[in-house]
Amino acid sequence: MTPQALNEILAAEHPAAAALLSPVGRRAAMPLGIPQQAAQAAGCALKATIGEITDGDGVPLALPSVARHFPDLDPKQAFRYAPQAGLTPLREAWARHLDAEAAAPRSLPVVTGGITHGLSLCAELFTSPTVPLLLPEPYWDNYETIFTMRLGTPIRGFPFYAGGGFNVKGLAAALAQVQGPQAVLLNFPANPTGYAPTAAEAQAITEVIAAAPGPLLVICDDAYHGLVFEDGVYAGSLFALLANAVDPARTLVCRVDGATKELVFFGGRVGFLTFSASGRAGEALAEKAAAVIRATVSSCSAPAQAAVLAALASPTLAAEQHQVRERLATRYRALRDALLANSLEPYPFNGGCFALVPVMGMDAEEARHRLIRDHGVGTITVPGANALRLAFCGIEAEDIPELVARVARVIG
Amino acid sequence: MTPQALNEILAAEHPAAAALLSPVGRRAAMPLGIPQQAAQAAGCALKATIGEITDGDGVPLALPSVARHFPDLDPKQAFRYAPQAGLTPLREAWARHLDAEAAAPRSLPVVTGGITHGLSLCAELFTSPTVPLLLPEPYWDNYETIFTMRLGTPIRGFPFYAGGGFNVKGLAAALAQVQGPQAVLLNFPANPTGYAPTAAEAQAITEVIAAAPGPLLVICDDAYHGLVFEDGVYAGSLFALLANAVDPARTLVCRVDGATKELVFFGGRVGFLTFSASGRAGEALAEKAAAVIRATVSSCSAPAQAAVLAALASPTLAAEQHQVRERLATRYRALRDALLANSLEPYPFNGGCFALVPVMGMDAEEARHRLIRDHGVGTITVPGANALRLAFCGIEAEDIPELVARVARVIG
Description:
Two copies of one chain form a homodimer. With 412 residues, the first copy, chain A, is an alpha/beta fold.
């Protein structure tokens, strides 16, 4: 479609999305280019369309030196270009995965090259130097790269915590301070804090967002979805709560998630971007996302998509995921207990892959370097927070007491 | 490094690159974020750095349902995050592949998610609404998406052909019309024309570019590198010719190439971006590219990188590539002969995957639709050129006479 046609659909059927589009977002549309023309000729006996090297029946002439590394993936899926929005059966499989958790108005998920790619698509379609991004602080440092370095989108922070929980009032106050279009990003369980809201907080966040006058873009960064290790914590995604609660005249919600952590496939770079818009509005937004994909990476890596598609159909997948989550839960408890035993008080945490420990009386960067130099311990400092992030996802539970003891020697 | 430090290195050691940087390009730098801090802790016994789920020794806890699809790839390469600039041994292997063809001042190649990604990195680092892109016309339609839709970079076309060959004078005239920074993109063998310059034209192009006052960015889109099927055609990349000829005070050359066509791995999305800058300037440019990768896709898909790395070490790779090229050469000759036999005169072509046939006396879009509807033939029309692009890479040689006969029935 033309950009104008897509924009008209959105104006009619999802006014918030239409109002939120950035200049790039307004221009974005799949031209009647080679992929579309090739699709129109799909039924032809003689195809001289797309520039792929095949045998004449669409079977890729993959080189054995490459192909032997993917022995059981469908060659048409793994070696040919994936569609810009991703392998269709993979999009449908992920949609079923979302719906199985909670029904909500949604588009078909668009396949992205990992979570960051989903976030950068949101950033590019909807934010700009005049549309600020609200973020609970401290936040993952790459948000600055994605939103500000590339696009000039200003970040407005508000304190993540109020007392022992999420700062719902701070979110409401931050939203109230902006006139006109704005975006807010909620990452639960959070990096770097390892915090996910309680069920009551999730409900309160939903009410605050639903009441915002808009135009408001809400980005749910669900990278660590499912990694929740305490009772009473809301284990689902905020996306379904929000998508069911918001008014499409005022608010658009985007869910960004993927195989990276959920399927423990970090190198694969398979993510998904789903909009809180069904029908033609959802299709229009997916087409805009596909157009930006076409303009940045053309399409996402196909072998990884094919592997995720196959894994989603595997009868043992759920048990495998459960096993990894149990192993992480054991590490989580080991870290929680070791911090307590060493009188180190982290920010409240209950999930994800991290705990964030404030550093008192010294510079966290100095503490980090001293831990590397003198104690053989690697940690992360988060810009803006004088604190050390301890990742428990890459260290076995039995080593965690020693890790924390060494950290305590420097910052205790 | 900080953006300032990188910009100072470029100002001192590659003034053209410094002068060409877009606002995003000037801001681009890898912050002291999680990947860098994790690298600093590489030698630590206890690592609580990066948010990857591993066994404590860096071995990824890949799920069997995913991992079984990559049975012989190194799990650390395939399942963990690749570095932002790509797997280091893959970058080094591609550098050897470039040097084996022709020595030239160059950076270490940066791994990209395919050719389009390499182009979009060039676009983002160096072009903007005030830095036009010169393109021989007709050109691949996706350049408009990459450069103009996303970034507002204006495209200034000039006629691809003069007589039976490349329009070197037109290139010189187009370059002379722009004051200040500009970019030019040269795609040989070309999509959609299937033309690569003769050796004499390659030399003349090099002289024109080397004489340009700059600041000038030259992007060599080498997607179809190596697919040359006539004698007397320059079979190498212009990159080495140009990189050896230009003055770094005035001109920066970027080579964008990859495994997509060269290793017939369309779905893999493994490309490379190489700058005509060695030493610290090359490292600074590679870091800026890596920063934009971090901000858009975080890192490129690792299983495909690992497979390309393994393939580049395969003793049978060259023979496999030769076999595919011979098969394409047979199709090329079949197409050339069939066009002649049917009195269809294409634009001059000698390589790549395409021939472009002008349509006289009717609209090419109408011809394309009639071919689909009435003749079961899929072709591509190129916006701006009233012509049909015939791809010979996806159709067997024995079917090509029938294909061309049907095309001739509509446009002959």
